[in-house]
Amino acid sequence: MGRAAAQRLLADGWTVTVAHRQPGTTTAGAQSVQVDRQDDAAMDQLLGQGFDVVVDLLAFRAVHSAQLLRNAGSIGSVIMMSSAAVYQDAEGRTLQGVSSVESAPVFLEPLSEEAATVAPDTTTYAGNKRGVEIALLDSGIKTTILRPAGIHGPYSPQPREWFYVRRILDGRKVFVLGYSGRSSLHPASVDNLAAMIALVAQNPGHGIFNAGDPGRPDESAMVSAIADAMGAQIAQVLLPGMAPIASPWSLPTPFFLSTERAETLLGYRPVATYRQSVIANVESIVAEHKAGALLGRLSDRFGPPGLGCQVFVGGGAGPFDYAAEDKAIADLLN
Q: Which residues form the domain of 255?
């Protein structure tokens, strides 16, 4: 996400400084600063230099918002990357910890920014994010909050497309999808997010905006886009209930966001559909896999081993348990 935002801001004529923890992370044309976000003194030194806009992609807890607030006099405006995980349904269910139909949130329409959210806390991802949102919005700093759901892009730390890319690489021709293929975690490409960031940088301080790719791409449509990006011919078996394997999109009720507010107030227009942007995602995943670099960087803290991202509702089989899928197909034929 950071690279896409930096490249877009550079293209718009901004002077960009990219702060990062790992060595060797550079963006052509940008100043590069290596800093640990957990090091308050180092962050104060960096932020104290003064910036017209701070794009904060790593504000997860109160300590991070406090760094910004301490240096408010040196900051023109803040763009904070939050998450649609802060939304909760009428029963208090969120995207966190979904593992069954009963625990999955139910949203019948695309969510607006006025939808109910979790209360701030210091123990959950969503509660921490909500706490940071409130602290910044109440601070007096010109603040914009972006709430995407399923961020995707080349070399993503959570490459959801790997769930289906690996199947194609393994020669699978038939994919089994639950909930009639209508499941979704609203995707948000890094290029669309970067376009929104660029607009906000020029027109700061308008509060909260949802962010997502255009339309309502469901799992069936995304699978077709992934297969087409790989030049693969596949078939889909659509089950009315859960599939034998939970996927990164398999919510019983699809999760979509309304981006009408950004379109109206900012003049936001997406630069790419999911089908267009997923091509680069797939190319990067395949390239990393062929180089032997993909599996080593997938973190089990995000999801099942070997997948590296959150999954939702399914029959309990592992992400690449093809025997479970074959059994589901055989049961339909018998």
A: 2-333
